[in-house]
């Protein structure tokens, strides 16, 4: 009996396609306030969400949802929640770093024409999920893969993206009517930008530097000390 194969060729990409993938990876940036007000066409938003939805997920659990926020009034309310948490965050840093922290412009929520809240439904596939039997956090890790897919697709489309992490979960859940059982994984700001930093902004502005890869790679076993 003849059966149709469900397999596809697994060879390498062409040089141009391969280089495009690496270009997206190496030039992706976390955009904070350089957004232009120009709206993102619906067709592109759909492509970005489709890219996110094609992320790998352990046990094919696909635990993500995407809340799209375009209304300025909604984004303003979210920004106020962010600002409240950000004011608290300043005091958590040593005094010597507080002025540098305050100098970082974190206005993406207000300036970007589109925000996306990415969530994880940890109950979607029941109590026992293939691949999550011994590591219950795999659904969260899978959702982060969706965020990365979305980020690289945005870079390919010429769209900047910023990941906002300074907020209280309870505040954002109340604003977006998110059930208590649902985990917020990422709040993202998206919009067109004229330019991107050649290096990560926090490196350019002296907050931190990229670690040397050779210091992070071990052979066969852990070699990084106790």
TrEMBL record:
Leader sequence residues: none
Keywords of the record: Cobalamin biosynthesis, Flavoprotein, FMN, NAD, NADP, Nucleotide-binding, Oxidoreductase
SUPFAM superfamilies named among the record's database cross-references: FMN-dependent nitroreductase-like (SSF55469)
Residues in Nitroreductase domain copies: 25-192
Gene Ontology biological process terms in this record: cobalamin biosynthetic process
A Pfam short name: Nitroreductase
Catalytic activity: FMNH2 + O2 = dialurate + 5,6-dimethylbenzimidazole + D-erythrose 4-phosphate + H(+)
Top-level enzyme category: oxidoreductase
EC number: 1.13.11.79
Alphabetized GO MF terms: 5,6-dimethylbenzimidazole synthase activity; nucleotide binding; oxidoreductase activity, acting on paired donors, with incorporation or reduction of molecular oxygen
Assembly and oligomerization: Homooctamer.
Stated family: Belongs to the BluB family.
Protein name: 5,6-dimethylbenzimidazole synthase
Species in which this protein is naturally found: Hoeflea marina
């Amino acid at each position: 009996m003849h059966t149709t194969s469900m397999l596809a060729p697994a060879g390498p990409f062409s040089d141009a396609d391969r280089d495009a993938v690496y270009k997206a990876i190496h030039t992706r940036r976390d955009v904070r306030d350089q957004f232009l007000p120009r709206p993102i066409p619906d067709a592109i938003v759909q492509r970005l969400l489709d890219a996110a939805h094609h992320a790998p997920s352990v046990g094919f659990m696909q635990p993500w949802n995407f809340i799209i926020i375009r209304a300025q009034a909604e984004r303003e309310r979210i920004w106020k929640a962010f600002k409240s948490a950000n004011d608290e965050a300043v005091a958590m840093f040593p005094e010597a770093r507080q002025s540098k922290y305050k100098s970082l412009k974190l206005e993406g929520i207000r300036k970007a024409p589109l925000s996306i809240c990415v969530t994880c439904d940890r109950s979607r596939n029941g109590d026992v999920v293939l691949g999550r039997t011994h590591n219950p956090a795999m659904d969260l890790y899978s959702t982060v893969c969706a965020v990365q897919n979305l980020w690289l697709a945005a870079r390919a489309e010429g769209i900047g993206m910023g990941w906002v992490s300074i907020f209280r979960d309870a505040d954002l859940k109340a604003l977006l009517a998110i059930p208590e059982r649902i985990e917020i994984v990422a709040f993202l700001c998206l919009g067109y930008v004229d330019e991107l930093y050649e290096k990560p902004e926090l490196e350019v502005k002296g907050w931190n530097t990229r670690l040397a890869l050779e210091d992070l790679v071990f052979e066969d076993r852990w070699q990084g000390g106790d």
